[in-house]
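User: Fold this; tokens only.

Assistant: Input:
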Amino acid sequence: MNDIYRSFYTKSQVITDYMIQQLDVQKNDKILEPSAGDGIFIEELLKLDYQGVIDAYDIDPSAISMLEKKFSDRQNIKVFSEDTLTSIKLDMHVLAGGYYDKIIGNPPYGGWQDHEKRALLKKQFVGFYVKETYALFLARCVSLLKENGVLTFIIPDTFMNIHRHTKLREFLLLNTKIKRITMFPSHFFPGVQFKYSNMCIVTLEKKTDEALSNEIEIVTGFKKIEELKRYTEGQCCGDIIIHHLNQEEVFKSKDQAFLIKAGKGIRSLINTSKRTLDEVADCVTGIYTGDNKRFYKVASGEVKFNTSKCSIVHKEEIRQDYLSVENLITGLDGDPNFIPVAKGSSGPYIRRNDWYIDWSKAAVNYYNTDKKARFQNSGYYFKAGIALPMVKSSKIRANLLENQVFDQSIVGIFPKNNEHLLYLLAFFNTDVFNRIIHTINPTANNSANYVKKIPIIIPEDFSDVDSIVEEIIQSLKAKNTFDAQLQEKLDDYFNDIYKEWI
């Protein structure tokens, strides 16, 4: 990886072979490599005895020097030390309606842009998320294709679902036929292991009409890179699943998202729901201190994910009667001044007080005024609600917020009608909820914007659910455990409510 340009060079022969295969090169094609790096794709094209035009662009001086030396004897290869996103030469090709028959690339991911360039890109790519370079490369290169031209890129799969890329999805769905998206773990790509997403190879054809009639093939389930190799050779492999989505169906889905983690029923539920969570509850993110090591303490040395290496809180530092303070939102006078804070994941239904935050007046003033801190959504602090962890796990667990402050690792959910509190808490701990949220957003984080989209069905009478949840909470508080059959009853209850779609 080049740290400055965020270039992850393609060092996998299996991935390179697969992408070249997707390109389906013809002898008279004009080909663009928009972020050429060390020229691996060009080398593979030359192995096929390709004699046509290849243009290689890069902004990294060391990459340009390497490319010029490597291909100095090739008259059909031109190397350009220019930025693909802002090149005037490429602007002319865009204005002409496209120039290249084929484009292949591994664009930079999250490349840093200075403020001046960012302002320029915002004008050029109106509505696009300009902080993510791979998205801009994808949009730019579609514009550089001739009609019916083909592009294949290896990129993070975040473009398929996250809010910031809604404009990109709309652009792709209306202007291209997305032929295939092949998804796989990021560790298939040597030197890369993203925590927030996986990788994919997207292959599309520029088509300014009839794009929505296309059927998109999405391939998932790869566990080992050898399976991708066998798939490239036309063999069936292990747990591979091939999904087919109508492009118009994706375009009409909420935010034009690719909802592939569940079947058609769950997709229909998400896209046609009459009521979503944001209509029955406020979903907000909590405080960020700007300096966790300074302001947080932990209950013991066994607290997980203490990445800031916060110290252990002593009993005499904990304010026991803090809820009786008249104006708690401004902070506490005197000592002690540490209070419980909901942070990170915890068990279902109730949470342990593993984390404590400095709530002295001086600390609260810092949270309110320091540029690094965010005293966000403070009107919800110390209210009864539900905590949903921001970082996603295979099995998401929600728990009560019992009148405490919560931090940015939590989505705080506050029902507009308090009678819905235990019902929603029960739902958020069921298998059906887990399936829905993983379909809406398969990436690592459950931000408030995704949680708001959850389809909600609330029957007239849900007293049985409240009774079960109360029994679970009492058992957890008394014995730190509860009968698994109680959870099974809740799963069965909500499976029945959502049975039309699951």
